[in-house]
Amino acid sequence: MFDLIQKAIPFFILSLVIEWAAYFFLREQDEATGRGSPGYAAADTLTSLAMGLGNVLVNVVWKGTVLTLYAALYTLTPLRIPSDAWWAWVLLFFLDDFAYYWFHRVSHEVRLFWASHVVHHSSQHYNLSTALRQTWVPMTALPFWLLLPLLGFEPWMVLLAQSWNLLYQFFVHTERVGRLHPWIEAALNTPSHHRAHHGSNPLYLDRNYAGILIVWDRLLGTFQPETERVRYGLVHNIQTHNPVTVAFHEFAALWRDVRCARSWRDRLGYLFGPPGWKPAQAEERG
């Protein structure tokens, strides 16, 4: 099966090299104009590349499972969407992007999902290598696209839509691009919007979940424009470049909390409450 993301890897690497060169050769100009930025750091970039490679390797196996499940659902439903109809691809574009919005939003608002997604926010730098810092536990994404094969979209169409969404998002992970034309900023996820999403500033927390279209955030009340200098990373940064720790630190913390919880209600709260959730008695003591 054709894998758009794997085919795009050489373009990802070339884009990283070009962006790094821009930081290197324009550093004096950036400092003179007040555009100083963390840019690239060797250890941070190597960690991001390791996380990306691990994600690709995990998905070699995991995508087979996903494809099998999609095929089973597609077989069960009587609905069929013709793959040769132009409107089918337009409909798929919007449905896939809406599914991504909810996957991304839940990944920030439910700790079990956040334990997987936190990897992507763990860098205190913001450049194209950050886009490659992906989870080694991609299973949390599965529920959000199950409706599409049930609606009659062929499994390969759903996987292709997921790939073009991720491919688009790669290019919004940069500080080298400022704000774009107002019409573009109004409709699409842009580097400016996504910089705000990666901010640990209180203003930016849990905002701008867009994949390609920013309109979902505008309609559902989660939009925040980039207005103040973004502070990248987590509210409590993990201060490590060890890929294994980056991949699993939040799962380890979640397990400790669940294991030490005093009741099943508290265990469920830790699992399905928002990141930072604590039982009422713990908040009173704290």
Largest sheet: none
State the end-to-end CA separation.
53 Å
Strand and helix order: HHHHHHHHHHHHHH
Domains, number: 1
Keywords: Lipid metabolism, Membrane, Oxidoreductase, Transmembrane, Transmembrane helix
Subcellular location: Endomembrane system
InterPro entries: Fatty_acid_hydroxylase, Sterol_desaturase/TMEM195
Pfam family, one: FA_hydroxylase
Record the SSE blueprint.
Layout: H1 4-25, H2 27-32, H3 42-76, H4 86-109, H5 111-117, H6 128-131, H7 147-150, H8 155-170, H9 182-187, H10 191-197, H11 215-220, H12 243-260, H13 264-272, H14 280-285
Structure description:
The chain has 286 residues and is mostly helical. The protein has one domain (4-30, 38-260). 59% of the residues lie in helices and 0% in strands. The radius of gyration is 20 Å and the shape is globular.
